[in-house]
Automatic annotation (TrEMBL):
Belongs to the CarB family. Keywords: Amino-acid biosynthesis, Arginine biosynthesis, ATP-binding, Ligase, Magnesium, Manganese, Metal-binding, Nucleotide-binding, Pyrimidine biosynthesis, Repeat. Pfam families: CPSase_L_D1, CPSase_L_D2, CPSase_L_D3. Pathway: Amino-acid biosynthesis; L-arginine biosynthesis; carbamoyl phosphate from bicarbonate: step 1/1. It comes from Coemansia biformis. Gene3D superfamilies: 3.40.50.20, ATP-grasp fold, A domain, ATP-grasp fold, B domain, Carbamoyl-phosphate synthetase, large subunit oligomerisation domain, Methylglyoxal synthase-like domain. The lineage of its organism: Eukaryota, Fungi, Fungi incertae sedis, Zoopagomycota, Kickxellomycotina. This is Carbamoyl phosphate synthase pyrimidine-specific large chain. It catalyses: hydrogencarbonate + NH4(+) + 2 ATP = carbamoyl phosphate + 2 ADP + phosphate + 2 H(+); hydrogencarbonate + L-glutamine + 2 ATP + H2O = carbamoyl phosphate + L-glutamate + 2 ADP + phosphate + 2 H(+).
Length: 700
């Protein structure tokens, strides 16, 4: 959401806020219709891309307001406002317009229309003109004395004076509504909610603000999501409901003459601009942005781990597709393709052969073109550990260790987390703490950080190998969960470490964790029904949109109550059937265990092919015509399927795959779905651990 005093400036700010890769009201490169007929069709049918199709039609195809009105039925008032933006866009693209010839009035007009410095720089560089950088535009703007003004949001609709601390910035003003004499500490929020960045980071931001206020600091929150607590202006001394771009954060920092800025509690968005803020004279508090950059850069991070003697899977920085293929052949497939500076595992994929490797490499370079792509050995059959921690000047203050139920390869945001870990061998917890201490020291961390460690069984039966696969020098989405379970506010401790005041004494929260009287488990909540055609498959790229966490006396009890709390999940009703699918990577032992449990509980076991039926034992083969949606509904009802368990581990290449079709059928018809073999085994263990008679009541 964007708040400004004009439509044009507000719209452009809102577009940029939706995704930093959007310049504003402008065509999106590489995804625009090629013919007029295709463009007309795209304009007639509203989608999340229609705004960009409008920009393309107006700027590249010269569609008139009237023609667009006839195609879209959008009110002419809005279309004329968009045309105002386009007029300014064309003026900046003029072949004779350069940064040197750009006058104050022209630049001010562009800023009032909502053009960012980066967008102006790009337009001034168009049509073969000399390249112009964002900082050069900023320098010229400042030489003209042009800056945004801070205005108050009137929360009382003009009926009474409203001297709130609820602010926004705009170029369509001539005075500020506030004086800048507080010199507060800035906290950058989480920005837009999307898969991978949700209310967890808002909790972190609010907790940081509260800790700062307890320490006597004036606080300045910058965020633009109306659904957050951090945009409640009672939570901080000043709230700027504004962009989290480099340009706007620096503007606010300069106006407020802030004492510093915290970038490590709002997720990936603040992290991505941390280095630029630091390089341009802003005081970034806590861990150095140069260390943050080293951790985000896959190549540099891997090299530092080698230097400090922390093990990691075999890796190689991408030089060419041919080199990547040679590396994969040397270490053996599967391998993991990992771009840099992304959240939620965007474009991170497991490749099982050369063809999928080439496809995933192209996707990774498209998502993160300015940063290296690293290919690492993907370890099958391993378990993943999640470590959330706080350090001060390179020394651990507190840490928590969660164990994934799923095998390694499922994104931590989609995994079921167990705290305290239920199956770690003796000595592993101490080794994890030692690794955390080495990483904290190597990166000189002051503040929060999160690590993922692969626990790989040793061939000789010795203690498992521990290999670090990732480290983020910021709060993670599991910080609230770990804080609640351990009754220790990790962000409060992290904020004190960031500012170096009243830092708590180090303590080992995981000591004697095996003697805790409870276990907590966090399970994911998916929105597959809202994502038409999406594959309900767990992989290295995050897909969940929420989470549920519950306590239990045992891990099995905690898992069962957490799973039953997930929206849309229930156990099958008596007399109904269980539909089971597997692939060549599924462990036969697990598939047979799951089928045996439900068969003994009185449920008919159905499957989709004779080979699987032979594997499961007493199972009936039922095939569906997935192309016939209406007929399939009747067929599913007739088969009485009330639970689908798909244990396939290989991601399908297309929608013709039968495991994809099985999973999608479950989602589309509202049938509970279990799509991971470890989760299916944990569910069976939990049901079998129930007291006599309890399982029958749950099934009923």
């Amino acid at each position: 959401m964007a708040i400004v005093s004009t439509f044009e400036e507000s719209l452009q700010k809102a577009i940029r806020s939706a995704d930093p890769s959007f310049a504003g009201f402008a065509p999106l490169a590489g995804c625009m219709p090629e013919t007029d007929a295709e463009l007309d069709e795209a304009l007639r049918n509203p989608t999340d891309r229609r705004l960009f199709h409008l920009a393309y039609a107006m700027l590249e195809r010269n569609y008139s307001v009237e023609r667009l009105h006839e195609l879209t039925r959008i009110d002419r008032w809005f279309l004329y406002k968009l045309d105002n933006i386009c007029a300014q866009h064309r003026a900046l693209c003029d072949p004779h317009q350069t940064l040197q010839t750009l006058g104050r009035a022209q630049l001010e007009a562009a800023k009032r229309m909502g053009f960012s410095d980066a967008h102006i720089a790009r337009l001034l560089s168009a049509a073969g003109k000399a390249a112009v950088g964002e900082d050069a535009v900023r320098s010229v703007r400042q030489s003209f004395g042009l800056r945004p003004f801070a205005k108050r949001i009137d929360t009382l609709a003009g009926e009474f004076p409203a001297p709130t601390n609820y602010l926004y910035t705009t170029y369509n003003a001539s005075t500020d509504d506030v004086s800048f004499d507080e010199h507060g500490t800035m906290v950058l929020g989480s920005g837009v909610y999307r898969i991978g960045s949700s209310v967890e980071f808002d909790w972190c931001g609010v907790s940081a603000i509260r800790a700062l206020r307890q320490l006597g600091h004036k606080t300045v929150m910058v965020n633009y999501n109306p659904e957050t607590v951090s945009t409640d202006f009672d939570e901080c001394d000043r709230l700027y409901f504004d962009e989290l771009s480099y340009e706007r954060v620096r503007d606010i920092y300069d106006m407020e003459q802030a004492g510093g800025v915290i970038v490590s509690v709002g997720g990936q968005l603040p992290q991505n601009i941390a280095l630029r803020l630091h390089q341009n004279g802003m005081r970034v508090l806590g861990t150095s942005p140069e260390k943050i950059d080293a951790a985000e850069d896959r190549h540099r991070f891997s090299r530092i781990l080698d230097e400090i003697g922390v093990d990691q899977p075999a890796w190689k920085e991408l030089v060419s597709v041919e080199d990547a293929e040679k590396f994969a052949e040397t270490v053996g497939f599967p391998v993991l393709v990992r771009p840099s500076y992304v959240l939620s595992g965007a474009a991170m994929n497991v490749a099982y052969d050369c063809e999928s490797l080439r496809r995933h490499l192209q996707l990774a370079s498209d998502v993160s073109p300015e940063h290296p792509v690293v290919v690492t050995k993907f370890i099958l059959g391993a378990r993943e550990l999640d470590i959330d921690a706080v350090a001060y000047k390179g020394e651990l203050v507190v840490h928590g260790v969660c164990e994934h139920i799923e095998d390694a390869g499922v994104h931590s945001g989609d995994a079921s987390l167990v705290l305290p870990p239920a199956t770690l061998p003796a000595g592993v917890m101490d080794r994890v703490r030692e690794i955390g201490g080495r990483v904290a020291k190597a990166f000189e961390i002051s503040g929060p950080f999160n690590m993922q460690i692969i626990m790989q069984p040793a061939d000789d039966g010795a203690e498992p190998l521990l290999k670090v696969i990732e480290c983020n020098l910021r709060a993670s989405r599991s910080f609230p969960f770990v804080s609640k379970v351990t009754d220790t506010n990790f962000i409060d401790a992290a904020t004190r470490a960031i500012v170096g005041e009243a830092v708590p004494a180090p303590r080992d929260l995981m000591q004697n964790a095996d003697k805790w009287p409870y276990t907590a488990i966090k399970v994911p909540q998916f929105s597959w029904t809202r994502l038409a055609g999406a594959d309900p498959f767990l992989g290295v790229e995050m897909a969940s949109t929420g989470e549920v966490a519950c306590f239990g006396r045992t891990p099995q009890e905690a898992y069962l109550v957490s799973l039953l709390a997930v929206n849309g999940f229930r156990l099958p009703q008596p007399g109904k059937a269980v539909y089971i699918g597997v692939d060549d990577l599924t462990e036969q032992r697990v598939a047979q265990k799951v089928a045996r449990h439900f068969a003994q509980a009185g449920y008919p076991i159905l499957t989709d092919c004779p080979e699987t039926a032979r594997l499961l034992g007493d199972a009936e083969v039922v095939k569906f015509d997935y192309a016939d949606r209406r007929g399939m509904r009747d067929a599913v009802d007739a088969s009485k399927i009330d639970l689908v368990i798909n244990l396939a581990k290989r991601r399908p290449e297309d929608k013709a795959n039968r495991d994809y079709a099985m999973r999608r059928m479950a989602v589309d018809f509202g049938i509970p779905l279990v799509n991971d073999q470890r989760c299916a085994e944990m569910l069976v263990d939990a049901l079998e651990a129930l007291p006599a008679g309890t399982a029958t009541a749950l099934y009923g």
